[in-house]
Amino acid sequence: MKISTKGRYALRMLYDLALHHEEGYVSLKDIADRQGISKKYLEQIVPLLNKTGLLRTNRGNKGGYMLAGNPDEITVGDVLRATEGSLAPVTCLEFEPNECARAAECSTLFIWEGLYKSITDYLDSISLNDIINHSHNGGDYCI
User: Which SUPFAM superfamilies match (predicted)?
Assistant: First the structure.
């Protein structure tokens, strides 16, 4: 599994909004400048984050973007699912229940189920607040 630029940039955008959570709405230009990401690229990511309820938008003079929830409630898994779609390592695990005709006799299915569980458990265990705390304690998440 490879995370696209869209997924990584969405995470950086929401991380930036988490850092400035107390300031209210933040302009896309400010986020783009601080994160070194093209504003046009962020404009393509915004609808994905809006559609999944991770972002709140406001138009007008004091408009901009803010997190729709608290930084400790939004996980890396939430962001990546919003931008990448399913995190399943194989297509047969993308839907519940598994509709693969070979699922009952698939001798490798347990491998993919275990990998999928590890991926989702790990990504869902890291909140935006965890990234902030990690970066402020000398660690550095490279997103």
Answer: Winged helix' DNA-binding domain (SSF46785)
Q: Which CATH class is domain 5-136?
A: mainly alpha
Question: CA 44, 45, 47 angle in degrees (round to 5)?
Answer: 85
- Matching residue, tokens 């004091």: 62
pLDDT tens-digit readout, 71-114: 999 999 999 999 999 999 999 998 888 888 888 899 999 999 99
Which neighbouring-strand residues pair with 56? Answer: 66
- Cβ of 15: how many Cβ atoms within 10 Å? 23
The reported pTM is 0.88
Q: In a 3-state reduction of DSSP, which class is residue 138?
A: coil
Burial of residue 57 (number of CB atoms within 10 Å: 0-12, 13-18, 19+): middle
Q: Which two tokens stand for residue 21?
A: 């959570």
Domain residue extents for the chain: 5-136
Give the burial string for 88-125 (b: 16+ CB within 10 Å, else e): bbbebbeeeebeeeeeeebeebeebbeebeebbeebee
